[in-house]
Every structure is written in C-alpha cells, then in structure tokens.
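Lab meeting, item 3. Inverse folding demo.
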C-alpha cells in the first residue's frame, strides 16, 4: 500500500510516524515543497515551541464542533504527553502550557525527523504538488492508495503555508468555509499613532456595532499593546478571528478597553476629584493610574471633562476595521467542515481514501498550544485511519 502525505509540518509528520508504527509495511512518502520539513514548527512559541496544553477543552477552539470531537476525543493532553515521550522528548510545564524541556523548537523537529526516518518514512523535499485528481494521482504521474492533505492554511506563508491546499480542494470539488487570518493584530479606525508602544493590562471587549446590550460578544483580559494602526497583545489576538470574520461581512465591530478592571466608575470619579482638589490640572490627573501617553490621549479626547474621562478609563471605545494579513497571523480560521467528511472521520466523502488534517480543517484554537495540539491530534487520527485501511 502506497501513501502520500502532502506537507511535512506538524500534522504531516505525526501522521507519517503513526502509520509506520501501526503498519510498518505501508510505503509512506512525505512530499514537502520546502528544502526541509518542520519549518513552521520552528517558529511556534517564539522558537520555544508551545507543543500543547494541559487544559484541552472544546471551549478552547472555534469552528466545527464535530471535527473538534472527532480529533480531541481520541487525543487529549495525556495522549500528547505519551506521543512526545515516545519520541524521547522531555516536557516542561509552564502554567499549563507544554514546551520541550530544552525550550527549543529545533529539538522537536530533529526528534520527529529522526523517528520518521528510522521508521522508514521517505521524505522528499523541494517537491511541490501542483495537482491531485480523484484517483489520487499526484502531478499526473504517481498514483497512491491513500493521500493525506497536511499542507496547513494560509497563515505565515513565509514558512511554506501559502494556501496551496485550498487550490487542491477546489479542483477536487471539496467545499470549505471562508477563510480569514486569526491570532493576529487588530486594526482600528481611530488615529492611535500617538499611543504606539504603550503597554498595559486591561480587558478588551468585542461588541456588535448595533449591540445596545451591555453584554459583549466576547472579552479577553491580559496585556495589550497599542501599535500605530491598532491593538496587539494576546487579548486582541484571541478576538482577531471573530473580528476578521465580522469585517469580512462588512460589519464594523466595536472594541471597548477597560484599563481598571478592579475599579468601579465611582472609584475612578472619586480618584479624579481628589486629583483636581490637590491642584493637578491637565493629563497629569491620570498619571497615577495610566501611562502618560494614554493619559494625554483620554484627557484631550474629552477636553478635560471629568465625567467623560472616567467613562473612557472604564470603557474606551474603538471601531475595528479588520486585522493584519496572513503574513502576521498564527493560524487560519475556516476550512473543510464535517459535512465534507465521513462521520467521525477525517476522510473526505467525495474522494475515498483522501484525508485532511490541521489548518485545512474548519478548526482553530486560542493561544496557548491549542493549534499545535490539534495539528498533532489530527495527524495521528488520519494516520490511524490510513493504517486501518491496510488492516481491512
């Protein structure tokens, strides 16, 4: 039995290793268009490689819940630890986030390549797949008994994931949900150039433009950073997938920042009144709680009106116009849904023995190792299914 895995990233390598462990006699070839496999893995976690997380829950993912269950029900945090341990990789736990003990992504790639090679996986680099037909013939030449599409999405194209997989899906008539960048910086309509570089801890709320309800769509708390075009930081990136979807539909979502989540409006008003009573004037009335640049921005915006200043400290509003592009994104939102796959399987309905993994599926996770966990899990799931074909 001949199997081709198109893409030598996390899910592709995990799939190849799983197939050879389950059925050593299967002929497995990884086709990678770059000069080496695992390049995107090297960039994860700022080069430290956030492999997974101890808290693997459905709530940590967006997208098709059936696919999430198909993969995660068979691959939880314990399963991830077992897989890494089988490679000889010792794991370090940082507040639930799992990293290689060396804190070096290159060790992860080296161990994956070694295991794949030792098991007899063939790795062909500088091998671009231009076409795949319904008979599983690649580039009009070699026919395979099963194929796994593990090309990734469009996020971080500098690491090889530039959307090739979507072209193959279209040619095969396999539909997928619209794609957008996710885990990426957010753009706003307002001029925030004077706030560039300002860091602070706060809460970021996402609201619909027509939402009069006080309850937000979502919110995230943590360290935020103003850029010359908008907002960055983990809370903004966590909400960016929703923002990209909304703005792609022509909506204008509102973002509200609370700079003092542990203080109420009455506390802020009392603080400001005390500052004025002590003789302070101008933006310095806010210096005790906010950065100087931020103090000036809020003071000038409200022409020194204390009531409006207090309201902006509690909930400064911006209008999101979109996000940065795929080059800056960590993951792609959208992709192939369960309606294109066999039940509880990663095999496509339209093309038997064709499997899809990773970012090409309509699943994306939050920051914290969840996307890489899904890549390992979907690769292992597809690998077991391919091995099952040979057993049957």
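The presenter then showed the designed sequence:
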């Amino acid at each position: 039995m001949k199997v081709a895995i198109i893409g030598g990233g996390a899910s592709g390598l995990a799939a190849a290793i799983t197939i050879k462990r389950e059925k050593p006699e299967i002929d497995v070839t990884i086709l990678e268009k770059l000069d080496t496999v695992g390049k995107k893995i090297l960039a994860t976690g700022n080069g430290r490689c956030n492999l997974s997380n101890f808290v693997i829950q459905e709530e940590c993912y967006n997208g098709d819940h059936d696919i999430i269950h198909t993969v995660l029900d068979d691959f939880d945090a314990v399963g991830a630890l077992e897989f890494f341990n089988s490679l000889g990789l010792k794991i370090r736990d940082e507040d639930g986030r799992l990293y290689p003990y060396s804190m070096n992504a290159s060790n992860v790639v080296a161990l994956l390549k070694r295991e794949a090679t030792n098991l007899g996986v063939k790795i062909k680099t500088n091998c671009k797949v231009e076409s795949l037909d319904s008979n599983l013939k690649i580039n009009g030449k070699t026919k395979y008994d099963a194929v796994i599409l593990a090309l990734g999405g469009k996020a971080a194209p500098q690491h090889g994931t530039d959307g090739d997989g979507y072209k193959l899906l279209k040619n095969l008539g396999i539909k997928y949900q619209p794609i957008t960048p996710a885990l990426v910086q957010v753009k706003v309509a307002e001029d925030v150039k004077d706030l560039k570089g300002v860091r602070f801890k706060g809460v970021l709320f996402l609201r619909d433009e027509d939402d009069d309800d006080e309850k937000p769509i979502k919110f995230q708390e943590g360290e935020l950073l103003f850029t010359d075009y908008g907002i960055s930081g983990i809370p903004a990136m966590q909400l960016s997938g929703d923002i990209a979807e909304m703005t792609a539909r022509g909506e204008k979502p509102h973002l509200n920042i609370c700079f003092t989540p542990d203080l109420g409006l009455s506390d802020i008003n009392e603080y400001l009144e005390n500052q004025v009573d002590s003789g302070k004037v101008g933006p310095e009335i806010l210096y005790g709680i906010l950065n100087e640049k931020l103090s000036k921005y809020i003071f000038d915006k409200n022409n020194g009106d204390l009531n409006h200043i207090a309201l902006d400290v509690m909930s400064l509003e911006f209008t999101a116009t979109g996000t940065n592009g795929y080059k800056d994104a960590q993951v792609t939102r959208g992709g192939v849904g369960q309606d294109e796959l066999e039940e509880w399987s990663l095999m496509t309905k339209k093309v038997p023995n064709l499997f899809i993994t990773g970012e090409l599926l309509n699943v994306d996770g939050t920051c914290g190792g969840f996307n890489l966990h899904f890549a390992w899990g979907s690769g292992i799931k597809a690998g077991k299914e391919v091995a099952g074909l040979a057993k049957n």
